[in-house]
Write a structure and sequence with these properties.
elongated; Lyase, Ornithine Decarboxylase, Chain A, domain 1; five-stranded parallel β-sheet; binds pyridoxal-5'-phosphate; 11 helices; alpha/beta; 29% helix; TIM Barrel; 2 domains; 396 residues; 22 strands; nine-stranded mixed β-sheet
Length: 396
């Protein structure tokens, strides 16, 4: 029998038939209440600074629509993205919700992208004079003022105006018509280390440029340098002359593995799947590719329906845990693309179809993306952005 799948999709994207939905096996549950509490904690921590929510890469892969709506309802009026497509998508979400909020591209803008961005009213980064001229021309043609922020490279080594050229560039750009040069910002590569002298020098350099601007009568409504790392480790980046901070990973309740965790944010995400099969296997059985685990004794093994295609790092092999039946169970055998084997000897009554919490809370215990990041030798961004395309994003 052939099914018309698109006709059977419910509003969450579940495929079903005549009212019966077929749920995805692996889903990431997004606790919007926790997201909003995290946002409010950040706002309270940096008060009176503005807080820009960074929702680039589809809100770190989790779904920009739900994130933007929840944050806008909580009062957020500044949002940041990496590139034009994301900016338009976010603007559409905000307009649909009736929110008048700023959407800002934080990284770069290419010549052919400028006119549509100016038309849409997206705040653009000035990374060099040539780009500023193109933005000015486009704004002139559109009979609009384009809102722009000078993006200074004070040590990130990625994009923007070099600090040594900053004043000269700003003087030149400010003479161009149809530009509202409302902001100046920079980004730090090592702000997760509170003792890092490089970040201290970066902040000093940035502040000295802002001070030189002030002496020349160049003032900015928005001055920002801190992302989550600096908010936690360099509190001076949330005090004047700064007026705003940008936050991404802390909204999700995660941190860089290094440095201070000054904000008491809570986990937002929980990754869940189901048990596919439970078997009693004899001693001497080896599990999975590479035969990396050999059972020392007869063992009850559950094969769960999630693997590296869903975002479980290979690094969890023989080291990670999941929760089944309210208990922490060890992963044994190599993670494969779609399945993972788990020791469930201590879980009474476990059977096919039971729920598995890959990360999330279980009573007082929890496993977080940050825990996985430590096992993989990476950071939580990598874990969160690596959740697979078949993982259903479910908002709670
Ligand atoms: C320019 C800029 N600002 C802010 C952020 C948000 O960083 P975080 O998620 O660490 O808060 C990023 C993310 O990479 C960024 O590139």
């Amino acid at each position: 029998m052939w099914y018309n799948f698109s006709a059977m999709k419910d509003k969450c994207g579940n495929v079903g038939q005549k009212g019966k939905t077929l749920k995805r096996r692996v889903r990431v549950e997004i606790d919007l209440g926790a997201l909003v509490r995290n946002y409010r904690k950040i706002v309270a921590h940096v008060k009176p600074m503005r807080v820009l929510s960074v929702l680039k890469a589809n809100a770190y892969g989790l779904g920009v629509g739900a994130y933007a709506k929840a944050l806008a309802e909580a009062g957020c009026r500044e949002f940041g993205v990496a590139e034009p497509f994301e900016a338009l998508e976010l603007l559409a979400v905000l307009r649909r919700g009736g929110f008048a909020a700023d959407v800002q591209i934080l990284s770069s803008i290419l010549p052919d992208e400028i006119a549509p961005m100016v038309k849409a009213g997206v705040i653009l980064p000035i990374t060099d004079i040539a780009t500023a001229k193109l933005i000015s021309d486009a704004a002139h043609r559109a009979k609009k003022m384009a809102r722009v922020h000078f993006k200074l490279d004070t040590g990130m080594g990625r994009l923007g105006i070099l600090a040594k050229d900053a004043l000269e560039t700003m003087r030149a750009v400010r003479k161009l018509p149809n530009l509202d040069c409302e902001g100046i910002f920079s980004h730090c590569p090592m702000a997760y280390d509170p003792k890092d002298p490089f970040t201290k020098r970066q902040i000093k350099l940035f502040k000295s440029i802002v001070a030189s601007c002030a002496k020349e009568g160049i003032a900015f409504r928005k001055v920002h340098m801190a992302a989550s790392d600096a908010i936690n480790n360099f509190p001076e980046t949330a005090k004047p002359p700064f007026t705003m901070v940008r936050t991404g990973i802390n909204l999700h309740g995660s941190f860089d593995p290094n440095g201070r965790k000054a904000l008491n944010v809570e986990p937002v995400l929980s990754l869940r799947t189901r048990v596919a099969q439970v078997r009693e296997l004899p001693a001497g059985t080896t599990l999975g590719y590479g035969r990396t685990w050999c059972l020392a004794q007869p063992t009850k093994v559950a094969t769960i329906s999630a693997g590296y295609a869903d975002g479980l790092p290979l690094a969890l092999t023989n080291r990670g845990h999941v929760f089944i039946g309210g208990r922490r169970c060890k992963i044994i055998g190599r993670i494969s693309m779609d399945y993972t084997t788990v020791d469930v000897s201590d879980v009474p009554g476990v059977k096919a179809g039971d729920e598995v919490v890959c990360f999330g809370t279980c009573g007082r215990d929890s496993i977080t993306p940050d825990d996985w990041a430590l096992l993989k030798g990476t950071h939580a961004y990598d874990i969160i952005c690596s959740l697979g395309s078949r993982v259903q994003r479910v908002v709670k």
